[in-house]
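Hi P.,

Sorry for the delay on this. The queue was packed all week, but I finally got your sequence through. Input first:
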Amino acid sequence: MKFFIIILALTFTSICSAQFISGDDKLHFGAGFLISGGTYTLVYSKTKNKKKAFWYSLAASTFAGLSKEIYDGYIIEGRFDTGEAIATSLGGLTASTTLQLFVGNSKRRQMKHLVLVN
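Then the structure:
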């Protein structure tokens, strides 16, 4: 029975198509990641506050994406692409979340190690 379900699933996946992600959206994601990562590092090094660093870095990448799309859409007479603005914000969200999870936990680990050794 499992074999038939797998075969059936594979036949349906061959006719399915995924959404296309353009190279420009990947660049916007990377730019949002870099902007957010830099902002998080700067704010956290100054304040040592993870929440403030998270929100400032997410806001910086979102602001950068929106301002670039507003510039393209209304000043250059192109078009406002919401997908690119969302890609920039998602890159910022990825960097902010990753850094929030892994930055600033070394003291806690060292304290656990000291407690276990003593």
